Amino acid sequence: MSLAAAYPHPAGTDAFPLPVESAAFKNSMRFLAGAVSVITVGQGQDLTGFTATSVSSLSADQPTIIVSLNRGSSSWPAIQRYQSFCVNVLTDEQQHVADNFAGRGGVKGPDRYEGASWQKLVTGSLGLVDALTVLDCELEEAIERHSHSILIGSVRAITTRAEAQPLLYWHGGYRQLSNQTAPTIR
Questions:
Q1: Which of 92, 137, 139, 157 is packed most tightly, with the most Cβ within 10 A?
Q2: Spans of the chain below 50 pLDDT
Q3: What is the average pLDDT score of the chain?
Q4: Can you point out the beta strands (E) in 9-147?
């Protein structure tokens, strides 16, 4: 049985309303706070990467994560070529790294890595030495939808830094946690 057959449209209608306008959707997403990560891709002079808040865990049973990437990005061909990437979750002291990987000031390619310390990881991707957490991933699958690809990464190595605080992005700007008390770890 198809999903459409199992869950028909609301009573008395033939279809759901038309999709919302892109601008309204983008504005709505500004209210979704997220951790800021830089996704590193490539090797040698083919290094690139991007800043992302669209990172999420997929499964702990077989550690995998999801990252959304615009296929118009310079990182898309490198993901396809190297079949790996690294998620570097930033601390509240690493806004300059986020800005570099967002291309602010016209920074591109290997120049995005300047001003920070990096180490080569299992997949060949680079991990940020002082990141909050680093997830080195092999590309398991890339699902193309609309303008983006949903990258599913099988996690091959992890490092963490428990004493730091995350850099957050909310409503068009960087933020920090205001409650600096340590979380209860179970």
A1: 137
A2: none
A3: 91
A4: 34-35, 37-41, 48-52, 55-59, 64-70, 84-89, 118-120, 126-128, 133-145
